[in-house]
Task: structure prediction
Amino acid sequence: MGNNSNMVMLGLVLSNLLFSLASSASGGEGLHRIGLKKFNKLEDHDRLAARLGFTDVESMRSAMKKMILQYYLGTAGDEDIVALKNYLDAQYYGEISIGNPPQKFTVIFDTGSSNMWVPSSKCYFSVACYVHNKYKSSESSTYRENGTSAAIQYGTGSISGFFSYDDVKVGAITVKNQEFIEATKEPGVTFVAAKFDGLVGLGFQEIAVGKAVPVWYNMIQQGLVKDPVFSFWLNRNPNEDQGGEIVFGGVDPAHFKGEHIYVPVTQKGYWQFNMGDVLIGGKPTGYCAKGCAAIADSGTSLLAGPTAIITEINQAIGASGMVSQQCKSVVEHYGQTILNLLLVEANPRKICSQIGICTFDGSHGVSTGIESVVNKKERELSGGSRDASCSVCEMAVVWMQNQLSQNQTQDKILDYVNQLCEKLPSPMGQSSVDCEKISSMPIVSFTIGGKTFDLSPQDYILRVGEGAQAQCISGFTALDVPPPRGPLWILGDVFMGRYHTVFDYGKSRVGFAQAA
Result:
C-alpha cells in the first residue's frame, strides 16, 4: 500500500471482528510458526462488504479507492515464518508484539509502504483508537522516547502522531529499538472498520515518512535473518484455517511449484519492475507491448491497471457496474409495478415505500429492506438512510414520470429506463459478473520476465455468498496513475494469491512462481 504524504492508502479495510492467536510453535528446519485461529462464518449482512474487507458499503467504496491508489523471524542462519490471516481473500494480516512485557497487535504486512504504525494510548479523540489495541509506552521497560511528529496522508483519510522506539517481536525474533509511529489521530470511518490495528511496511526506506528505518531493514542490520529475502504465500481458500505465511530470511519450498522468474527492481521505494504485454484469452492487447511499470503490493486486495485495458478485460469477462446491475434488478422486479402506480396517479414520492423498497419519512423515501431485489441484510450495510436500492427506485420513478409525460408506451419506457441503468457509473470502479458464467470467462495473462503468468476466472473473480444469493465481483479495477510514475499496474492479492512472491532485497529483484 502506498503511504507517503502524496500517496494513498491502505487505510485498507474492515470490520472490527478480531482473530485471536492460537499457538506459537517451531516447525522443522528452523522455521518458527505462529498459528492463528480463523473465523470461518459470516452473517449474511457482512458478506459483500466483508469480501472486500468492510463492514459498510460506503466505507468499502471510499477505502477501496484509497487502498488501490496507494502509491506507492529466529536466530541468524534461520528463517522466520509469520502466519497470515486470510479474511475472505480480501486482506491478509498477522500478529506482532511491541515492548516488554509484550503488547500484541494485529497488522497488515504491506509491501507497498515502509512505515510501521499502531494506535497510541495517547489517541483520545478518534473512534478508531477505541475499537483497537493501543500501545502504552508507560507499560514497556524497553520504550525509548523520540517525539518527532509524523503524518501520513491517504486518499480519503490520514493518520498522524509521533515517532517512538521500542523492541518489536515478529514471529520468534525481536527487533531492537525499532522506530515506529504512535498514531494519535485516525479520523474518518476507514480505520474504525479495520480488522487490523496497525501496519508494518515492507517497502524501501526511500518512501518512509520521516526516513524511518523499516522493520525489515533492522532485521537485516541486526543479523536476525539468514538472507536478505522475504517471501509471501497467500492462501486463497478462505475456508481453510491458515491464511498464508510470510517468511523472513528465505523461502519455504512447500509454498511453490517449479522455479521463480525474477525481474529487477527498476525504482526503489515500491517493489517496482517492468512488465510486458497483457493478454486476454491468449490474444495480446498490445497495451504493454513496449513495457509497463508494475508494483507487487501485498497491501492491495485487487489488481489495478490503466482504465483503457481494465475496461477491455471487464468487457471480455462480462463485468458491469454494480450500481448498474442493481438498477436493472429493481426495474426487472418492480418496473411494471411502478408504472402501474404512476398510471393510477399514486404520489410519486411514496411509490418506493408502497412497494417496500423504501420507507416514507414525510418528504421522501428512506431505506428499508427488500429481499427479492438485493439481499436485505446486505443492504443494511449501507448504514445511511438512503441506500442504493432506495435511490435507484426513486430515480426510476422520475425517469418513468418523464417518459409518461411524453406519452411513451410502457415497453418503450421500461427499455429506456434499462438503458439509463446501463449508464450509471460504478462507484470506485467495482464491477460484478454473472456467477453462472465464470467457467466460460477467458484467461487473463501478464508477461513478466518473458514468461506469461495466467489468471483463471477462479483467480480473478471474488465470490460473495452462496447459492442463488451469490454475487461475483471482478478482481480488476481501473487506476490511472499519471506520468512520470505511471501508467502503472498494481499486482495485489489477486495476483499474489496465484503466484508465490519473493522480495529479494539483497539482489534488488522480485520473483514469481506458481503457488502450491
Summary: The mean pLDDT is 77. The CA atoms of residues 79 and 249 lie 5 Å apart.
